[in-house]
Structure formats: structure tokens, C-alpha cells
Amino acid sequence: MATFDFAVVGGGPAGLAAAALLARGGAGVLLVDAARARGPRAGEFIHPSVRSFVHRLALLPERWEEAHLPVHGFVNGWASAISQETDFIFHPNGYALALDRRRFEGQLLEAAVGCRADTRMGWIARAIEPCSDEQWRITLGNGEDVRHCEARYLLLATGRQSFHPRVNFRRRRYDRLAFLAVHIPRVSKDNRPFIECFENGWVYVTPVPSDASVIYVFFDARMGPPCRRTVGSLRQTLACCDRLSTLFSDVSGDRNEDVKWFAGTAHSGLATPTAGKNWCLLGDVAESRDPLSASGMYSALQDASRVSERLLRDDFTTTAREDMDASRQQSFAEYLKMREGYYAAETRWSDLPFWVDKGGSMVEASAIPALG
Ligand SMILES: Cc1cc2nc3c(=O)[nH]c(=O)nc-3n(C[C@H](O)[C@H](O)[C@H](O)COP(=O)(O)OP(=O)(O)OC[C@H]3O[C@@H](n4cnc5c(N)ncnc54)[C@H](O)[C@@H]3O)c2cc1C
């Protein structure tokens, strides 16, 4: 049976970056990800300062950005019929990027493989259990085949929906935000992402490379999707969104085979604790925030960098872990307050359920459990 220093389960940005950084530091790393082929994914927006952070990680080739789309501004129609426009021209780090998510993951995977991480893409970690005080046993499956391996240390980077009964943490959800998204051919020349609100939620529209846009409709999962999966139904539901209606005026119905629908959860959640003696959580499984904050990619990469650095120095002490959790809890509580204020600022439909419930909020920020 293969034995590794580190097993990284989950090959999104958090897991891929951690695997590459640990392997670059000379450790024996296993990286496992369930997805063999990926459908459309969130075309994430990354801020100019996050672009610089990716450069500083020095994992990707110098020209990695060319696979993605430069974005020079952002249009925010939250809480007002008059949009606010942000231009990155004066930002010290220059422009932002609309990521091609699949290519970004491909680039990080190449980095991990280049640093000699052992990768199992298309394999699901079916069971993860401690087999002694010092070792984890992981059962992997890919449909036909089952394999076992062992690792001294476990890094879980399995995203915001994951559930791991044998690892000792609790993960709490703070709202019921969900999304329905459609990937359509891009028609507008203006490639700035934008946000608009409507009666039952809000919309985020972002360009993605290869001349397409993704329209995300966020809603309260308890109320169900606000429209059917047709462009006609989407157009009708979002008729009050001026900017989106202009974009729609050039989209030719549903016949185009490039129109692809997908859906998922977008809830805010926090795990406690996020690390133990021989395990830790990275990225969304540790902490997930509302896509409105556009901070998920940065947190995922920052977690990977911070944790791998400490693990390579063998310096992830109990105190360091507790400090990390305490500061995560504090910043998450501040974030929840900010989120609540942001949703409360949208008053045009303040008597309708989505806005009354502030995007499906379930608890007050003060209800976050204290550590210890
Ligand atoms: C609609 C939406 C829009 C967003 N927009 C933005 C944005 O504009 N900017 C931004 O910065 N962030 C954005 N985010 C957040 C961002 O996408 C996430 O924060 C980021 O993807 C987290 O990365 P991760 O690696 O932690 O998890 P994920 O990307 O979710 O990756 C988890 C991986 O784990 C794998 N996995 C799960 N279980 C197993 C298992 N048992 N065995 C093997 N593999 C497993 C999955 O296949 C997956 O590849 C958005 C999120 C959503 C939902």
C-alpha cells in the first residue's frame, strides 16, 4: 500500500495549490480529486491584488494570465437603479481577471505534477479514517477500481458541500443561498462583470474567456429557483434588471447549443476547529463566504500557502492552530455583520421574503460558537 507524508483530498484551487507547494518543498504528496471531466464552473473574478498574490506563489509559468480574461472595471447595481462603476485603472496592481476555472485548475495541476506530487484525478475519497495515532487510511474509488493508501497528515480541501464524519470538526451553515447559472455566448463588447438585484434575489454576470458570459441567479434555496431553465423564463424573471435586459436583447433563445445550465449552493459556512494534530481544512470546507464578497479564490490560495509553509517547517503547533481558528472566527463574525448590512441596504423590495430574510440568513453573527 502506498504511504505518503501528506494526502490532499480535493483538487480545487485550495487543494491543488497546497499539493504543489508541499511537493515543491520536498514532501511526498498524494492529491486526489473526484472530478474526471468538469462541466461549466464558476467563472471567478479575481481582484488585481489576488493576481499579484498568484504571481508571488511562483507556481505558474510567467504568462499564466494569458489563458484568462483581463477585466478593467466592475459595475455594481446593488441597492440602486443607478449603477456604480469601479475602474481599475488607478489600482497599483493593475487589472483584474475573469478566470477560466478549468484552465486555472489545469495550470495548478501541472505545477503539482511538475513538483512530483502523485495525482489521482477522477478518484473519489470514499472513506477517510484514522488507522493509528500517526496515520490516516484513505479508500479511493473510480467506478471500477478501489485502492487504499496511507498518509501521515490529511489536508481536506473538498469544498463547501463536503461532509467528513471521521474527521473531528463541525461545519455550520449560516444561510440558504443557492444559485442557478447559465453559460451563454457573449454578445456585449463591454466585458465588465456586473451585479443587479431583483424581487427574489440578485444576479451576477461575468464574462469568461472564449467569448461567453455566465449569468448567476442567487436565491433562497427554501423558496426554490425563481425561473425555469430556459433563456425565455430567465429573461422574463429578470425583466427589471436593466443592464441584463440589454445583454439579453442579442441572445437568440435556447437553440444555441452553447447555452449550458448548472446550479449549486452558495451558502456561507464555517468549520470549527479547522485543524487538529494531523489534519487540517483548506478553502471552502474551512470557511465559505457569499460570492458577493468575491473573496473565495483568495482565501483558498492563502489557506494553502499559509498552511503548507507551516507544515514544511513542522511548525503547526497547537497554539498556532488555535490562533488561526480564533482569528478566522473573529473575521467571519465581522463578515456576517457586513453581509447582513449589505442585504439590508437593498430596500426596493424590503417587504419580499428574500430581502426580509436577507438572502436566507439563519443566525445572527453573535451566534458563532466560541472555541474551547
Ligand atoms: C456561484 C459562485 C460564484 C463565485 N464567484 C467567485 C468570484 O467571483 N471570486 C472568488 O474569488 N470566488 C468566487 N466564488 C468562490 C470560489 O469559487 C470558491 O471559494 C473556491 O472555488 C474554493 O475553492 P476550494 O478549492 O476550497 O473548493 P472547490 O473549488 O469547491 O473544490 C473542491 C474539490 O474537491 C473535490 N472533492 C469533493 N469531495 C471529494 C472527495 N470525497 N474525493 C475527492 N475529491 C473530492 C471536488 O471535485 C472539487 O474539485 C464563487 C462561488 C460560487 C458558488
Summary keywords:
single chain, 372 residues, alpha+beta, FAD/NAD(P)-binding domain, Alpha-Beta Plaits, 2 domains, 8 helices, 27% helix, binds flavin-adenine dinucleotide, oxidoreductase, Flavin-dep_Halogenase_NPB, FAD/NAD-bd_sf, Tryptophan 7-halogenase
CATH topology of the largest domain: FAD/NAD(P)-binding domain
What is the CATH H-level superfamily of the largest domain?
FAD/NAD(P)-binding domain
> What is the first-to-last residue Cα distance?
37 Å
Principal-axes shape call: globular
Strand content: 25-35%
Count of discrete structural domains? 2
Output the radius of gyration. Answer: 21 Å
Class of the largest domain, according to the CATH hierarchy?
Alpha Beta
Please work out how many helical segments DSSP would assign.
8
What is the helix content? 25-40%
For the secondary structure, the number of strands is 21
* Biggest sheet features: 8 strands, mixed
Bound molecules: flavin-adenine dinucleotide
Architecture overview:
There is one protein chain. The protein is of the alpha+beta class and 372 residues long. The protein has 2 domains: 2-72 and 100-174 and 268-325, FAD/NAD(P)-binding domain (3-Layer(bba) Sandwich), CATH 3.50.50; 177-265, Alpha-Beta Plaits, CATH 3.30.70. Helices cover 27% and strands 30% of the residues. The protein is built from 8 helices and 21 strands. The protein has helices spanning 13-24, 48-57, 101-114, 231-237, 242-248, 296-312, 318-345, 353-356, and strands at 2-9, 29-33, 45-46, 69-71, 73-77, 84-87, 96-98, 118-121, 124-130, 136-141, 146-156, 170-173, 177-185, 194-198, 201-208, 212-220, 260-265, 269-272, 275-276, 279-281, 287-288. The strands form 4 sheets. Strands 1, 2, 8, 9, 10, 11, 19 and 20 form an 8-stranded mixed sheet that branches. Helix 1 packs parallel to helix 6. It is globular and about 60 Å long. The two termini are 37 Å apart. 42% of the residues are buried. The mean pLDDT is 91. The structure holds flavin-adenine dinucleotide.
